[in-house]
Each structure stands twice: as C-alpha cells, then as structure tokens.
Amino acid sequence: MCLHTRGIVGVFALRGAARFSLPSNGKTRMRTLVVIGGGPRTAGLLERIAAQSPTVRAAVHVVDPHPPGAGRVWRHAQSPLLRMNSMAEDVTVFTDESFDGEGPVRPGPSLAEWTGIDPVSFPSRQVQSRYLSWFFDHARKSLPPTMSVTVHRATAVEVTGNRVRLDNGEMLDADILVLALGHLDADLEPEHRKLAEHAAEHGLVYVPPLYSADADLSAVTGDVVLRGFGLAFIDLMVLLTEGRGGRYVRESGQLTYVPSGAEPTLYVGSRRGVPYHSKTGYRLQGTRPKLPHFFVADALRGKELDFRADVWPLMAKEIAWGHYHELFTGHPALVRMPFPEFAVSFAALPWYSEEMRELERLAVPDPADRIDFERLDRPLAGVTFGSAEEFQEYLRSYVEADVARRSDPRHSADLGAFLALLSVYGQLAGLMPFDGWWHGYFSYLASGPPPDRLEELLALSRAGIVRFLGADMWVEAVEGAFLAGSATTPDVVRANGLVEARLPAHSLSRTADPVLRSLRATGDITEDAAGLVRVDPLGRLIGERGEADPVRFAVGPYVTGTAFAAFARPRTNAPAFKQNDRLAREILRLLGD
Question: 561, 576 in Cβ contact below 8 A?
C-alpha cells in the first residue's frame, strides 16, 4: 500500500496486516510488491510470476545489498577456490516436464547447458553466481510491461505496518511483502559467547559459527581445533590451506600437498567423527523407480505422529527401496532372486523387522550391498584406538574407501538411495516438526563434498596439516588454551585457536536480522519451539494472536516447514519450484490480476 498515493481511502493497519482500499475515483493505481532478499529464491519467484502471463499493473522492489539473483551465498565476490557440491548437470532453476504445479512449465538450460562445461564437473561458486545473475535478468525481462522491477542495493532495517525502511534512508511502501532472507546470522549462543570471552582474555583465536566465505580467518594460525566435519569444514580447509598458497601435485597417481608454510595445523572432529559422504560420480545403471513408493506424506497429514515410531520407518523403507531398485535392475549379478519376487516380499514387510533383515540376507549376499542406516549414521560407534596415530591411519582408509565406492558404478545403488532420499525430503513441508538428527543425517548423506575434495583432505592428512580427533568430540576452555579430544582416542590436543565449522543455528529470539527483530518487537511474527519463524502452508506470517497475515509472507531456511533449496536437480519435480508457483499465484491474486 503506497501511503504517498492521493485518493486512497479506508487506510488502516491491523496488528500484523496492512489493509487497503482502492482509490475513491475508481482509477487503477500501481500496486507494490516488496521482496526483501534478492537471491535465487527471489529470482525463482519472479520467474513463476512471469510464467502466469499476468496482466496486473505492479511495481516490484527487490532489496538486497548483494547482487540480485546470486545474493549473499552465491555472490561472485568470494574466493574462486570455493566450489559447489553439486555437479553442473544436477543444477537447474527451471521447471521441466516433471513439474506438476498449477502454473505452466517454462523450461530452460541447466547450469551445464548454460555454461557448456563438463556436465559431471563441480563448478566454482563464481560460475554459479553468473548463472543465477543471468537467471534473475531472464526472469525480470519475462515480466510483462505492466510490471516494473527496481533493485535496491541496500539493507532493509525495519518493517513498520506496510512501510519498509532501508539503511540508505529510502522508504518503501508495500501492498505485499515477501521475506526471502536466505541463511541468516545470529547473535552468539551463551556457549559461544563464553568461548569468545575466553579467547579475548587469553590472547587466543575464536571464530564462532559463520558463513565460511564471510569469516575473518587472518588470525587463525598455529594449532587450531575445528569443530564440525561437514561442508563448512571443507570450505575452511580450502581457505586455510590452498587459500594460503599451498598447492597439490599428483605423484604416481596419488595426490600430494605441498605446503606454503602459512597453514595452521587443523585438528578436526565432530559428533560422528567422519566427513560427510562424498558425492557420487556416476549415473543410474538400472531403471529409474517411480517415487514416492512407500512414503507418501499426504497420507500422514492430520494425524498425531511420533517421528521415530511413525514417520522414520516409512522414510527408511522408501530410501531402501530406491537403493534396492537400483541394485536389482542395474546389477542383477549381485542378487540372488528376480526383482519382482523381491519387490513383493519387500512391500509386505515393515522396515524394522527381522523378516526384512532375513529377506536382505537371502536376496543380497554381500553385506556391502545392503543398506544399514544405523551403521551409516555412526560409523565410529564403539570403535576406539590406543593412540591418535592409529586413528589417523584408520580414518584415511575409511575416507579412501568412501571415495572409491562413490566413484565406482558397481555401487550405483547408493545413487538410487540418494534419489529416494530427495523424494522423501521434498514431501516433508508442514508434516511435523523434525528433530535436529534428521536434518543432520540428511545433510551427511546427501550434501557431501565432491570426491576430489576428500582426496585433498587425505593429502592434507598425509602432510600432517589436518589431524583427525574422532567421534563425540569435546572442547574445553582452560588457562591459556583450548583443549579438545574425543571418545575415539585417549589423546588430548592443546590449541591456541577454536573455529566453529558450521553455520549458526537460526533462532528468532537470537536473530541478527533487523527486519525480523522489528517484526518480532511488534508481535507480527512468532517462533516455534525450534526458534523458526511460524508461517502457514502458503508462507503467510503468523503473528502473536495466531492469525496468518494475508499480505506478508516468508520463505527460506528460517521458517517452519522444510527448507527447500532454491534450485534443484532437473526432472525431480522440485518442491521449491512448486512452493514458488503457489506463492506467485497468491501474490497475483492479491495484486488483483
């Protein structure tokens, strides 16, 4: 709602919702849509708006200090050493024939097709940045002449009623507001604040949870503990080694690291004590299964559910189905019965039953070809070593085996499980709150690094630059140092630095985002038990009275429901595209199209 427009009558605000009426002279005025956040989610939303062939007259304002399309995470201004953890052929921002949303399909090139690079390569984030920037321009140009798009390279600092204040002094008035904020910073948790205070008092280095490309690592030297073994660790590993002038050479087929002398020694550990699984480097060898098969989330909605008892067994069976479908159809020599016979028995049995285990043993002779979720989750459970040196050798062998398995088409059943895992994940929005275990497990299995990053990890380990701590890692602040150890070995490390190798856990009560803070102060947004911003299934903000705001929306990893990636693998009926499509149609309805 534009308060500067003359002739507007009946303008008033309810808590959490701006209300408006049309001009009293009956003339149509230009409505406004303000989107805070200009990353790939916003570009995708604009593309879905354009796909509806709208006739509405509207002004769209996109607010983000970072380049539109790429946003903060994918901005070009970051180290060229940082790469995606997806192959170029597995990245698209366009709908295709698999899309079953209400809006029309508007196909377009994948990242590999747009760039012309090797489809199975893992591009740099700078390459992805250019693709996303192009996509934003494409979406903007696809809008009709009755819709304008203005980009404000600024930070939104406050929302009051329908007015958005920017840090450059601009004020924007919004008939409709969409918060597409992406990954957010947060105030330090009490533990992290104490560690930072300890570091300042004792002349140590402490880096709290941050997006890795934004972290100031200039003071990270000497012996440093990294807590976390996921993708944030991989980024930090790259920035603190090759980013400081080291280089890799291949000698007799093995990758070797040549230090620059500026690297710290990195002691890394986590709850699992192992890195995320490598991305697969092959395609399906058998037929692609129709998914979902056993886990259909819509059949569970509206029921009282316990995640472990009611939901996870169905999810596990679906993922196992993807695994065995590929094993039987792609590698019939590795199994002992025809697939139709196995499929009938598999369908009839609960996943967690001795009968299912017996079926697996009977049909799949090699235990390495069976799927074991508990072993995958905690590979170091119950494994101990007498010294850290013994563990270094063991974990190097573990990582080498993981890279070899994920590079060998003989094990393409892992890719079948991965595709089923994506199918499960895509159905979860709004089903129920999920504990941190599930999201961590999903990332551990599905969001691992490219295999050559793990080869680099092995080279750094052999060079003594990276040292493995083990599982159930602990950290203690003592006089003049940080101590770290694990349940895997008796060794204790004394370090002058501690780096949290993970993103901050977002919580509305601790958010560093000024817009969310301003909306929380007025009661226009609320949080669930996990600290996520509460929204209804369409993304409408829910205020402290429990009512959904009709004209203010939020999407992204900081809201309730499943956080979908803003881009996706081709031909997977990506849930983010359907979410964008639903929101685009609602926005156009509100704008009066």
Answer: no
Runs of H (alpha helix) within 260-365: 312-330, 339-348, 354-363
Task: Kindly state the DSSP code that residue 339 receives in the 8-state scheme.
Answer: H
Going across the sheet that includes 163-166, the strands are 156-160, 163-166, 171-173
Residue 298 in tokens: 């819509």
Structure tokens at 450: 């490219």
Residue 386 region, left (φ>0) first, then alpha (ψ -120 to 50), else beta? alpha
Give the integer Cα–Cα distance in Å for 440 and 448: 11
Residue in this structure with the two tokens 């904020």, named with its chain if needed: 181
Cβ 158 vs Cβ 174: under 8 Å: no
The amino acid at 94: F
Q: Which amino acid is at 50?
A: A
Residue type, 187: D
Alpha helix locations (H) across 143-278?
190-202, 231-240
Q: What residue has token string 């508990």? A: 374
Place of tokens 């301003």: 518
Q: What angle do CA 229, 230, 234 make, to 5 degrees?
A: 90
Question: Are the C-beta atoms of 244 and 535 separated by less than 8 Å?
Answer: no
Asked if 149 contacts 34 with a C-beta cutoff of 8 angstroms, the reply is no
Q: Are the CB atoms for 553 and 540 separated by under 8 Å?
A: yes
- For residue 19, pLDDT beyond 60: no
What region does 571 belong to: left with phi over 0, alpha with psi -120 to 50, or beta? left
| 518: CB partners within 8 A, 6+ apart | 157, 158, 159, 160
Asked if 62 contacts 151 with a C-beta cutoff of 8 angstroms, the reply is: yes
Burial class (CB in 10 A: 0-12, 13-18, 19+), 82: middle
State how far the Cα of 18 lies from the Cα of 13, in Å rounded to an integer.
5
Helix (H, G, I), strand (E, B) or coil at 214: helix
Contacts of 478 (CB under 8 A, 6+ apart): none
Q: What is the pLDDT of residues 228-282, one digit of tens each?
A: 999 999 999 999 999 999 999 999 989 999 999 999 999 999 999 999 999 998 9
- In tens, the pLDDT along 43-76 reads 999 999 999 999 999 999 999 999 999 999 999 9
26 burial via Cβ count (<10 Å: 0-12, 13-18, 19+):
exposed
Whether residue 489 contacts residue 287, with contact meaning beta carbons closer than 8 Å, is answered with: no
Q: Which helix (H) or strand (E) holds 477?
A: strand 474-478
Taking the alpha carbons at both ends of the chain, their separation in whole angstroms is: 16
CA 535-541-546 angle, 5° bins: 80
Cis amide prior to 292 (ω within 30 degrees): yes
Q: Which domains does the chain have, with CATH numbers?
A: 12-186+506-591 (3.50.50.60), 190-276+453-500 (3.50.50.60), 297-380+406-446 (no CATH)
